[in-house]
Design goal:
Elements: E1 4-7, H1 23-36, E2 40-45, H2 50-60, E3 67-73, H3 76-84, E4 89-95, H4 98-105, H5 109-125, E5 129-135, H6 142-155, E6 159-164, H7 171-181, E7 188-192, H8 199-209, E8 213-216, H9 230-240, H10 252-263, E9 280-281, H11 284-292, E10 310-311, H12 319-328, H13 335-350, H14 357-368, E11 376-386, E12 389-399, E13 402-409, H15 413-425, E14 432-440, E15 449-457, E16 460-468, H16 471-489
Parallel strand pairs: 1-2, 1-8, 2-3, 3-4, 4-5, 5-6, 6-7, 7-8, 9-10
Antiparallel strand pairs: 11-12, 12-13, 14-15, 15-16
């Protein structure tokens, strides 16, 4: 059996507090979702605003393979707004719990049912496919819910959806609940929220019980604790239930990163499937096992979802993982010197330090008596900033004994300084600042500032850090440390004056 995926990132996902997508951003995400292979894209709620309608229209007119849908309440004005956007279907939602009917709508059950049927017929008369959806269905009277769905189907609804609006289901209840509704003769959707952390489990239980479609969002974003996570559902179906979807699983990591970047809702590192630590290993036993046979400590390969495996260096690192990283960095060492490096890494880990590639290279070079000449060195940095001044940085660098002078402006002094550095080295490497993190190690105005940066070059990530009392200098030094590592690895050893 194939499970259909209705993605509601652009509607339910956008209801995440603080998230608001422009029409062009909605279109970019929709195009990527279509490439991913989702069956239905709920592009938004047309009644919301003019800007929302503009975004839905852009998605509808793009000629995507996926069915384009709009959320609509069971009122004609919502259906009219959806029609204006030229969508193919409506996710027509009506509250069915007494809690919602009495306190939100202040109507009777019969009045709500009449509204639902009238809206279904109105949408059908205007050429829309209708998925009739019950809001707060899991706290509704089951007989009333069943009757409403039956009458909606008789009126022409082609699909039905039962929403666990506040995440009250358990997997056991979900199986019974969706199993009952799956006998009504039309395709059934499971729509689960994550208030108790059970949205994915409840969605899977619903599919097992007879639902044929699941509503979900990229990264599980949504109101409160969010919705069921698309990537977790799809990979669980593929790996644990041997159930197919139309999703291109190899795109999941890239899709996740795109949505996180465009919504500003970033993931916790240990997020299943797409988190940065999902395939990261530090423990010596685990890292050694993975290097010998990945399946020992990985249920799926990172390549399956477009991710990458990485080994983290800290107090738990084992000798095998450290040897492999040193070999990858082209730093061969004899057993005696390796033990010294190994002990120093462990010691730093015990102090709570994060051992980056730059740290490891410095440790190894110190132990081996190697001091590699820096490709880029800071000669002078001048910053101008203030409440009525555009932050400006002037930087003089020594690149292989040749001076270069550049200036940059930014939204702050750190940004301006990094812009100037990037302009100075742009001819030698296309370097992107992937992540910037700053911590005050000690208290007070004179606190030591620890800056960690992650730089991306040719698909590889380099981490570097600097600890200084000046946040601007710490940021520049950390950035330059990463640049030096990248340029050294790229073979940029000698640069002619004529190249500058």
């Amino acid at each position: 059996m194939n499970a259909r995926i209705l993605d509601t990132t652009l509607r339910d996902g956008e209801q995440t507090p603080g998230v608001s997508l422009t029409p062009d951003e909605k279109l970019r995400i929709a195009i990527k979702l279509d490439e991913l292979g989702v069956d239905v894209i709920e592009a938004g709620s047309a009644i919301t605003s003019e800007g929302e309608r503009e975004g839905i229209k852009k998605v509808s007119s793009e000629g995507l393979k996926a069915e384009i849908c709009s959320f609509a309440r069971a009122v004609k004005v919502d259906v009219d707004a959806a029609l204006e956007c030229d969508v193919e279907s409506v996710h027509l939602v009506v509250p069915t719990s007494d809690l919602h009917i009495e306190h939100k709508l202040r109507k009777t059950r019969e009045e709500v049912k009449e509204l639902a049927i009238e809206s279904v017929e109105y949408a059908l008369d205007h050429g829309l496919l209708v998925e009739l959806s019950a809001e707060d269905s899991t706290r509704s009277d089951l007989d009333f819910l069943t009757q409403l769905f039956k009458e909606g189907i008789d009126a022409g609804a082609k699909r039905i959806c039962a929403c666990d609006t506040v995440g009250m289901l358990t997997p056991e209840r979900a199986y019974d609940f969706y199993g009952h509704l799956s006998k009504l003769g039309v395709p059934l959707s499971a729509h689960c929220h994550n208030d108790f952390g059970l949205a994915v489990a409840n969605s899977l239980a619903g599919l097992r019980a007879g639902a044929s479609q699941v509503h979900c969002t990229i990264n599980g974003i949504g109101e409160r604790a969010g919705n069921a996570s698309l990537e977790e559902i799809v990979v669980a179906l593929y790996s644990l239930y041997e159930t197919k979807t139309n999703i291109n699983i190899g795109m999941l990591y890239d899709m996740s990163k795109m949505v996180a970047r465009m919504t500003g809702v970033y993931l916790q590192p240990n997020k299943a499937i797409v988190g940065e630590n999902a395939f990261a290993h530090e423990s010596g036993i685990h890292a050694d096992g993975v290097m010998k046979k990945a399946e020992t400590y990985e249920p799926i390969t990172p390549e399956l979802v477009g991710h990458k495996r990485r080994f983290v260096m800290g107090k738990h690192i084992g000798s095998s993982a450290l040897k492999q990283r040193l070999e990858e960095m082209d730093l061969p060492v004899n057993p005696e010197k390796f033990n010294q490096i190994f002990n120093r890494v462990k010691s730093l880990g015990d102090m709570g330090k994060c051992v980056t590639d730059v740290d490891l290279q410095a440790i190894a070079e110190d132990v081996m008596g190697i001091m590699t000449e820096k490709v880029v060195e800071l000669e002078e940095l001048t910053i101008v900033s203030g409440n009525k001044v555009t932050p400006t940085a002037s930087i003089r660098l020594n690149i292989n004994n040749t001076e270069t002078l550049e200036a940059g402006i930014g939204i702050g002094p750190v940004d301006a300084a990094i812009v100037a550095v990037k302009k100075s080295v742009k001819d030698f490497a296309d370097i992107e600042l992937e992540e910037y993190h700053v911590d005050a190690i000690t208290g007070g105005a004179d606190a030591l500032i620890d800056v960690v940066v992650k730089l991306k070059h040719d698909g590889n990530i380099v981490t570097a850090r600097s600890t200084q009392p000046d946040i601007i200098m710490a940021s520049v030094e950390a950035y330059l440390s990463g640049v030096n590592k990248i340029l050294s690895d790229s073979g940029v050893k000698k640069i002619k004056k004529s190249d500058l």
